[in-house]
Amino acid sequence: MQTTGKALAAVAGFNALASVSTGAGLPNAAEPSLSGTARAGPKSTEKLRIATCQFPVSGSPAENAKYIRDFMHRAAGQGAHLLHTSEASLSGYPSCDTPPCGMPSWENYDWGALRKETAGLQTLARELKMWLVLGSSHFLDENTKPTDCLYLIDPEGRIVNRYDKCFLTEGKNGDQTFYSAGNRLVTHDIRGVRVGLAICYDLQWPQICIAYRKLGVTVMIISMQNAGDKGPNCLNTLNHREVPTRCADNRMWAICNNSSQPYSHWGSFVARPDATVPKQLPINQPGMLVHDFPDTLSPGGWYHNLKPMDMAENTIMHWGAPSDSPRQGDGQSEP
Hints:
The chain is α/β, with parallel strands linked by helices. The protein has one domain (14-29, 46-298, 314-323): Carbon-nitrogen hydrolase (Nitrilase/N-carbamoyl-D-aminoacid amidohydrolase, 4-Layer Sandwich). Helices cover 20% and strands 19% of the residues. The protein has six helices and twelve strands. The strands form two sheets. It has a six-stranded mixed β-sheet with strand order 5-4-3-2-1-12, covered by helices on one side. Strands 6-7-8-9-10-11 form a six-stranded mixed β-sheet. 52% of the residues are buried. The model is unreliable at 1-42 (pLDDT under 50).
């Protein structure tokens, strides 16, 4: 597969965003034209086919990797160029203290087993010539909390970049108990489509999509973990409405997934900038959907936001403490 354009690896530290010169394409920069369908993507017949999957994420990297390998083969069989997995889908999610969906802490966690499974998925990506956006956790050192991450793995099996979740939930079982916060954006151009990476709670903060819009992103790839609960709550409504709203606010598309570990609050879906959801999977069961980008609006749909919002100069761009580990600053550091 051919990658077009240039990767924007480690674009900028978030706390430096407001002071970056306007020529850098960050919050105070001029944006691409919003007239007509300019935001729908480049004038190219080339398409990026993204497959997103959901499965019952557990605390076992080996069990999780079995699901991911199966979906990689299924995605390749449907002509997908990229497979996208949910938040912490390989490592397991530590802030879930119910054994089926995660583990209560990092104590005695087998990082060697996680590295082994990561390497195996990199090898499979190379064999299938497929991009992989892999939800996992990135080890920093024994005395530093890891990051909640998305590895961007190319069709040669290389980690070309890594996004670390920037906005972390609080509380006893919140992200900040277990993770270091991220502090940089990650975008990449694949088959003429500029994608941006984000994770779950990031989307509660409007500035994350504004910042990505400023970098020319047209498709957000979003991994979440709203699963493994006892039953319905407000999450059944929140993200299914919030993600399409972020798309409408910023005239972009999104593909968003979840774990299917029961009870899962919503199924993985695609959202458009007219705030519609053209595809969605059912809850509580494994599945995969495939969608092509650049996409269109829905029949009878239109852009709602003629002048997308900008950010104030003092806008915060992470919630929680980033580490000063060199491994966090290096988006290509080994798992």
